[in-house]
Design brief:
By secondary structure, the protein is mostly helical. The protein is about 65% helix and about 0% strand. Helix 2 packs across helix 3 and helix 2 crosses helix 4.
Length: about 80
Amino acid sequence: MVRTPLTPEERERGERLGRLLREARGSRSMVDVAASAGISAETLRKIETGRAPTPAFFTVAALARALDLSMDELAGLCVPAGV
């Protein structure tokens, strides 16, 4: 399966998601949050740094739950201003 390249907008949205998750994590360790979400710390690291700009829906949902964020709030914050 060949994956189509991501658009600049998709990359930007992934970077925004990573920043939001990093901010929401606050002083909690990456390992703690990843374990709470049922994912590896490396997966969380890739999402937070934008190296995995399109994580699976269930991964994002698990992270939102672990960080006590609503999916609606998270989705709204990932949309660029003016859209």
